[in-house]
Amino acid sequence: MLPVAAFIAISSFPGQALAFTQTIEDTHKMTFPSGQIISGQLSPASYLFEEGSILGVSVSAYSSTKDQTDGNPFVTASGTMVREGVAAANFLPIGTTVTIFGRIYTIEDRMNARYNDRYTIDVWMASREEALDFGSRRTLLEVVNLP
After folding, report:
1. Would you tell me how many other CB atoms lie within 10 Å of the CB of residue 86?
2. Is the N end or the C end of the chain the one with fewer CB atoms within 10 Å?
3. pLDDT tens digit sequence for 9-19
4. What is the pTM (predicted TM-score) of this model?
5. pLDDT in the model for residue 72
6. Long-range contacts made by residues 23-29, C-beta under 8 angstroms, separation at least 24?
7. Which structural domains are found in the chain, ordered by start?
8. Read out DSSP for 29-88?
């Protein structure tokens, strides 16, 4: 398969840059600031991430509706109020800051347990219509800061 996009990412370590070509379909590949690339079908829970790690993820969007939550749709799993810049993921610790599509998000919420073994992230949107318009996409995520 031919690569569909090339990405250049700047790591959080001064003087280090990561550059590689990746097929968007490869959601089990990640690059660490040390230059190590890991690819395979291992469970996301088996990896320890570090600042500057880059990995392929599926990104979708959610909004504050009762059918998309187990509790109060306006309160995240970490106890904060939903707002722009909040994201949900099960494979990263609460409080992790990531960059997706050039925007910074903070992991403050969790997804349904069926996503435990997947590189899937949900970004919060103010309305159901915005979330549906966003849809689901595959892209690269960079871990900016760990709690």
Report:
1. 20
2. N
3. 333 333 333 33
4. 0.70
5. 86
6. 24/56, 24/138, 24/139, 25/1, 25/138, 26/56, 27/55, 27/56, 27/57, 27/58, 27/118, 27/119, 27/138, 28/56, 28/119, 29/55, 29/56
7. 5-145 (2.40.40.10)
8. EEE-TTS-EEESS--GGG----TT-EEEEEEEEE-S-GGG-SS-TTB-TTSPBP-TTEEE
What is the torsion angle, in degrees rounded to the nearest 10, for the CA atoms of residue 129, residue 111, residue 73 and residue 65?
30
Structure tokens, 72:
């109060």
Q: How far apart are CA 42 and CA 7, in angstroms?
A: 23
Which residue bears the tokens 């599509």?
101
Give the SS3 label for residue 138. Answer: strand
Dump pLDDT digits (tens) for 68-79. 777 788 999 999
What stretch of H or E contains 20? Answer: strand 17-22
90 touches 110 (CB < 8 A):
yes
HSE, side-chain direction, 13 A CA sphere, residue 56: 20
